[in-house]
Amino acid sequence: MSPARDISPWRSLWRQLPLLVLLVALWLFLWDEVTVMSVVTGVLLAILVTRVFYLPPVLLSGRFNPWRGLLLGLRMIVDVATASIEVAFRAVNPRYTPTNAIIAVELHTHSDLVMTLTAEAITVVPGTVVVDVDRERAVLYLHALGTVTDEDVERTRRHVLGTEERIVLAVGTHEEAESVRAERRARRMQRGGGVHGGAPDGLTGLSSDEVSTGDIRRRDGAHRLDRNEDSGEGSR
Amino acid sequence: MSAASVALLVPALAPAAEGMPPLPEDFSVRDAIVGVLILLGAFLSLAAGVGIVRFPDVLSRLHAGTKPQVLGLVAVLAAILLEVPSWGVLTTIVLILTFQLLTQPMTAHMLGRAAYRTDHVRRDLLIDDELADDIARRERASAPSDDD
Amino acid sequence: MSLLTLVVVIIAGTMFGIGAICAVWRVIRGPSILDRALAADVLLAISMCALGAEMAVNRHTDTLVVLLILAMFAVLGSIAIARFMAKEDDS
Predict the structure, then answer these.
(1) Does residue B147 belong to any structural domain of this protein?
(2) What is the tens place of the pLDDT at every residue in C3-62?
(3) Cβ contacts (< 8 Å) between A129 and chain B: which residues?
(4) Which of C16, C29, C36, C38 should we substitute to test contact with B (largest number of B Cβ atoms within 10 Å)?
């Protein structure tokens, strides 16, 4: 964090480059055509917008794993599709009466970026809504539809932590990703090595010996990272 | 597209198509897929409407109301793309979906937060409320006065 | 318009209609303003789906821009109401 404080203009431009590229892409998509005129006006407008409506720069980790990003995207699509159908059938099923729960999930990483992305990803999937956030302790409070037993609560918690792991592996910093990998290795060892490649990508099975996984991992503070970015501009 | 070419396109249909009555002359696979996608979107819209009428409290309605339609919109936009395939349509659809996916969670979160904070929650439907537990714990820690 | 499309149009139209009527009922009945905001949001989402379905059936893209604008700015109403609620009665 500290070396980034005294930033030269080039560093700041480099740091804002993803945002500028995104804004130009948005402009081109709106025009539906790629011409000299649209590109030039897009670049000029992007610079103007980022100068006039100045926001504190999003602290990107500077790391992006495309393969993990692809896996994350595919998993999100599958999750959203299945959960949408499930919630829709619950809505039209006349014998269904909802029982809900508000669950506190303590995330492993304290970075704002990962926390925001996780909250967004959790809220996009139907059936769970982030109701409140404790930024200091990195706790997401989510309201889950259709939880009947404690087992459902634990499954939702595991799902959230799995989503966080996938996001960290895709866009988190090296340290965060390394700690997630170490944790996964530890979990796989614990499981006994019988089902090595069986559950891909944090897809925890539902066998009974894993019910307490969420609890173990919540109490386990050894792998927890310190807050690695404390930009202090958040308003939560 | 005639029935024979349908059978060519869909090999699994070919043996069955022998004994079946011939398909209508103006049947096309594309229209069928578009129809299925539109029906999916319509079903999800219906479920959202029924859900917000049936479910008993704001937070439950939030689940039924805000999010299944995103999938419905995806289905309908895919149907449009199948009927009018062009780059201009594709880019606009990508933009629509991006904004929908960015803004829908914001709506859900803001409404859920307001509902919880203004006590529009049916406590009897919750099997577990760890937010209230944490709030109570913090209040006990800070001021040992009468909570609850 | 083929028979298949006609059937699809009738079924889908009925479903959209029932969904929209349910949303309107909730707007009228809603005990709290949050219910009304949510139901208005649902009504808007159903309208978006219906507009899209109409485009797919009639093979044009005239109202795609409307969908884009709605996807961009529909969120503002609900957020404004939610913020207002949070400030209004914090009891």
Answers:
(1) no
(2) 888 999 999 999 999 999 999 999 998 788 888 888 988 999 999 999 999 998 888 888
(3) 59, 62-63, 108-109, 112
(4) C38
| Global ipTM | 0.86
What is the domain range of residue B131? Answer: 3-142
Tell me the three-class secondary structure of chain B, residue by residue. CCHHHHHHHCCCHHHHHHHCCCCCCCCCHHHHHHHHHHHHHHHHHHHHHHHHHHCCCHHHHHHHHHCHHHHHHHHHHHHHHHHCCCHHHHHHHHHHHHHHHHHHHHHHHHHHHHHHHCCCCCHHHEEEEHHHHHHHHHHHHHCCCCCC
- Which residue is closest to B57 within chain C, CA to CA? C35
Identify whether A235 is part of a domain: no
Would you say residue A210 lies in a domain? yes
For B87-137, write each residue's pLDDT tens digit.
888 988 999 998 888 888 888 888 888 888 887 777 777 777 777 777 777
In a domain? residue B15: yes
| B25, B44, B45, best to mutate vs chain C, most C CBs in 10 Å | B45
Per the structure, the complete domain to which residue A9 belongs is given by 2-52
User: Is A129 within 8 Å of chain B by CB?
Assistant: yes
Residues A101 and A202 reside in one and the same domain: yes
Domain extent for C76: 3-88
